[in-house]
Amino acid sequence: MKQQKRIAILADPIDNQKGGVHVYTRELVKGLLEDPGDFEIILIREKRDPQMTGFRQIVIPNIRIGFGLAALRLFLVVPIVLWWNRVDAVVEPAHFGPFNLPRRIKRVTVIHDLTPLLFPQYHRFHSQWLQRMFLKRILRKASLIIANSAYTARDIQRVFPFTRGRVAPILLGYDPSMQRTEDTDMLRSMNISEPYWLAVGTIEPRKNLVRLLEAFTLFRNDHPQTMKLVIVGERGWKASQFYSALERHPYRADIVLTGFVTTDQLTVLYSMAMALVYPSEYEGFGLPVLEAFACGCPVICSNVSSLPEVGGDAAWYADPEDVESLVRQMRAMAALPDEARSHLQRSCLVRAQAFGWDLHAREFIRNLKALWVDEPQSDGESMHSVSPH
Prior knowledge:
The structure is a single chain. By secondary structure, this protein is α/β, with parallel strands linked by helices. The protein contains 15 helices and 13 strands. It has helices at 12-16, 20-34, 66-84, 115-118, 125-141, 150-159, 184-189, 209-221, 240-247, 263-272, 287-294, 307-311, 323-334, 338-352, 357-370; strands spanning 6-10, 40-45, 56-59, 89-92, 106-111, 144-147, 167-169, 196-200, 228-232, 255-259, 275-278, 299-302, 316-318. Strand 8, helix 8 (209-221) and strand 9 (228-232) form a beta-alpha-beta unit. The chain starts with 5 loop residues before the first strand and ends in a 19-residue tail after the last helix.
């Protein structure tokens, strides 16, 4: 009988993050719980989840007192635990490591985007430095590189040509609990009234929120109906320009910053918005676009990077560097007749059905299995990729 392979997932983002990598790691683990293929899967994490009973959890606390102890955990303790447990492969969802492993252990690295390298001006210095210092070496040692879109896969192979043949683009899914849900009382509890535009994401320069504020000014200047702008997300890095523009905004009283919200709250916000407005300058995938579709929420997003790959024919597009392009789409969206808007909402729901975490997990398992097949892999991004089309 063929011996079962043991896969370790470095699942720290479930315990120490709230953003996109947290969502990815959480949903990957949930998908693998449903169908782990022929693998035994263990989770390396900072905290134990007593409600998770399907996988063995190995808890290695992360004491954040200076960089030294965190580095000791990452570079020494985690590798020793992996070696001791005789894992056959290690999956790193946060694309930082794994380090110092025996050669027999295969490495699987997930790349969500290359923004610290491609847009260093939008990141803090230590984030840029860590990527420049370690990412090339990580990718050289990776047996398999998972990208979350074909666009990200092309970026990886363009910046690091030696990765060709080892990059598998697998599109993401969305939380199936996110379904169209209207709840006026919940909106009222967040001091939000209809109609409103919605923006979702960490408040940081790449999200292009300063231009969104400019577009909102132009929209409100010639729009007789009071309409709010609701921005969901926590304050990130290099956000001072946004907050300065916010305080000077002529319609500041109609701009709501919610901070972090629950999945239930976010579902209602998507479901009842005029549209998600997502003018990001670069996305490895753009999960809010897909989440909005799942709730029947129309989307106005940038026409760059991976966003057309996710939005397909259901999204409306604008040039992220052109405020007039963005406000034209906002005016057109606000003017849609009811019948046309209903048709657009149905198109969004249909588009969402082409994506799923179950599909992602299935393709993830298929790529893992290929690591132990002696046949040569196909070239580039065609390697076991999955497309929503």
